[in-house]
Specification:
The complex is a heterodimer of chains A (about 140) and B (about 130). Chain A is mostly helical and about 140 residues long. Chain A is built from 6 helices and 2 strands, in the order βαααβααα. The chains are: A mainly alpha (about 140), B alpha+beta (about 130). Chains A and B meet through helix 1, strand 2, helix 4, helix 5 and helix 6 of A and helix 1, helix 2 and helix 3 of B. Chain A: This is Membrane protein.
């Protein structure tokens, strides 16, 4: 799977905005919607609502990408996002507001770093997890 | 909660700026490679690149290194999958990908970086290590 690298950056921007709203409102249902988006994204980032928005509304106005990137890191990052979004949902919907806020905070920082700086969190975390798992 | 959001975004901005400033910048390093990790090559500087399938910048490092190794005598590019060399990854203190080690002609680590180095500075560094 090869992706236009600007698509995931665009999605990360929308994800950032969504987690700002989640933190401000404490709305667990909104976080649940984002968890669903991450779940789809872990399967194919192009099929999320953000991905479709990018493909049909944004990409046609930008022209073709200079290069394409492998989809595996993006899918991995979406799976990591799913874990944090799920933590947020469970926290807010069960009344453990602090847990929800912590989950949303991690997700917000990760999405913001991806959107603004292009930081590949999947690359940063992948080896760490691998090393700890086999330690 | 507004203050929390503002603080988180400020924190992320600082992290991002530091990350961007250090990303791909080569710096002097030392140490030996784990025995048997590399096939011996006399009088060759090795660009030893640890990567994984789930790492997008690893592809850029591959392109930069292959390009340099193809254009300079006495330089080779070796790419190792971190998953398959977890012992070496541990010995070398590698936590993030892509990590690039510049190994001198005696087989000692001379320089290292995390991220994608730019072509010009990698070429300058390798030329220096070749001459050392």
């Amino acid at each position: 799977m090869m992706l236009d690298p600007r698509g995931p950056r665009f999605s990360a921007g929308l994800t950032t905005i969504l987690f700002v709203v989640v933190l401000l409102t404490g709305n667990g249902w909104l976080a649940l919607a984002q968890a669903a988006v991450f779940a789809v994204g872990a399967y194919d980032p192009r099929l999320t609502p953000y991905g479709l928005l990018y493909r049909y509304l944004v990409a046609p106005r930008l022209g073709p990408p200079a290069e394409r990137e492998d989809g595996a890191p993006v899918r991995f990052a979406q799976a990591v996002g799913f874990v944090f979004a799920t933590l947020t949902v469970v926290g807010y919907l069960s009344g453990a507001t602090v847990v929800g806020a912590v989950g949303a905070s991690f997700a917000l920082v990760a999405a913001f770093l991806n959107a603004v700086f292009g930081l590949c969190l999947g690359c940063e975390a992948y080896l760490l997890i691998k090393r700890l798992r086999t330690a | 909660m507004t203050i929390v959001v503002v603080a988180l975004l400020a924190f992320a901005t600082v992290v991002g700026l530091v990350y961007r400033a250090r990303y791909g910048r080569l710096h002097a390093a030392g140490g030996d490679l784990p025995p048997g990790l590399l096939a011996p090559a006399r009088d060759t500087v090795t660009l030893l690149h640890f990567s994984s399938a789930t790492c997008a910048p690893c592809r850029q490092v591959r392109a930069v290194c292959a390009d340099l190794a193809g254009g300079l005598d006495g330089v080779r590019h070796v790419e190792l999958d971190a998953d398959e060399h977890l012992d070496a990854v541990r010995d070398l203190g590698i936590w993030r990908l892509p990590t690039l080690l510049v190994v001198d002609r005696r087989g000692n680590i001379a320089q290292r970086t995390v991220g994608v180095p730019d072509r010009a500075s990698l070429r300058a560094t390798v030329t220096e290590v070749l001459a050392a």
